Amino acid sequence: MKIGVFGIVVVCSVVTAQAQQKFTLEDCRRMAIDNNKELKISQEKITEEHSKKKAAFTKYLPDVSFTGTYLRNSKNISLLSEDAYLPVGTVMSDGSFGFRADQVNNSWTMVNGSAVPLDKNGSPFNPKTNPEKILWKDYAIIPKEAFEMDMKNVFAGILTVTQPIYMGGKIKAYNEITKFAEELAKTKHNTNLQDIILKTDENYWQVVSLANKKKLAEGYVKLLQKLDADVQTSIATGVATKADGLTVKVKQNEAETVLSKVENGLSLSRMALCQLCGISLQSEFILNDENTPTEPEMVIASGDANRAFTNRPELKSLDLATKIYKKKESLVIADLLPQVAMTGSYILSNPNSYNGYETKFGGMWNVGVAVHVPIFHWGENFHNLKAAKSETRVAQLQLDEVKEKIELQVNQAVYKSNEASKRLIAAKKNMEKAEENLRYATLGFNEGVIPASNVLEAQTAWLSANSEKIDAEIDVRLCKVYLAKALGEELK
Q1: In whole angstroms, what is the distance from residue 171 CA to residue 184 CA?
Q2: Which domain holds residue 46?
Q3: What is the pLDDT of residue 484?
Q4: In the chain, how many domains are there?
Q5: Same domain, 238 and 133
Q6: Which of 422, 425, 433, 419 lies closest to 464, judged by CA?
Q7: Distance CA 429, CA 45 (A)
Q8: What is the pTM of this model?
Q9: What is the pLDDT of residues 422-454, one digit of tens each?
């Protein structure tokens, strides 16, 4: 029986331990970082920009490509529409094409002592200016089939190699842009990371604050319940009046209403933290600082804006953006300069005509240099260059403006941090005085020398002092985080 009871106790303890998980601030940060979609997106952006940087480097290397094609034609190509006939003549002594008298059927006559041929009508003509009137005896036949090419199945391919020699600085500028773009993606990721940590800290300490205020409200309700019981006893003995009892009842109802609001606020804050950490909204957990709060460290805060200028990821992002726009100017300038590339290719075709017309594969290689020189485009590139310079100036002005705002932000964070420390010191002193006042008021009421209204005032002052102390402690912690973020330091 004892063993069975012990087993039930152990099982209940395990279930309670699993239901009530305990999270530290670092646990919440880790879960929020692992769960956040924006961080995953920014990490993919880093991978994307890194791949683009590698792709940009390949522009320095030769580009090799192959293009192949196959055509099925419905007809062949013939250079002749029908059989052709060529006259058979003689190569003359001067190298020209001519004829002898025995190679033609024309009649001849003497004109000015020279033999001149007669056309079929008997009129003399000049064979050089009117060769169509020559009546040839012999002809050579050229059959149409001899000039017909088999083009029904055509295969062709070309292997091309292109090596950039001078592109006006475009390739170098593009590589530098992709390098800056990768760094920009990293700084944006770091900015998102710091924002998530800050948001997690705010939600974490919000829950801690409300959890402690809940305990404080519960303690206040118990004080009022005890005071109500004491007042009812005093009314029964005639020491207190019914008005005192009603006053205590009103305060008790107000305290219970405040407790209900704090409980609701705590539930909503826990849900917000669950959503941020990526766990179920119905999860039951306890934060490490709810039950064992540590005293926040109070130091005199100081900050140098120059440190923020060096560390702030926002400034790094704007500086990189300015550099990118500057390199875009180089890209536009490159369009104004000549571009030179060396090319080489091997051409393969079937049929081919490299050695007569053959229906088999044949090919040849070639090398060359390509030069592109822009001459006149109605000022398009100059307008583009002017626009690129304006973008660079805008980015620089934005960078200067953000520097001014960050300097103000750092000074404000320093003042708020020091003010929070002073507020906590004052809250501790008020807390000591409120506790002492409540002790004297309770003792006096029990002795019958102090009315219930004074005790209520002392309890209200005690509640206010405790609440201010809780707020001051949380404020000190958060102001420390705000100052670190303003200086661009890693949040710890």
Answers
A1: 20
A2: 17-61+169-337+376-487
A3: 87
A4: 3
A5: no
A6: 433
A7: 52
A8: 0.74
A9: 999 999 999 999 999 989 888 888 877 788 888
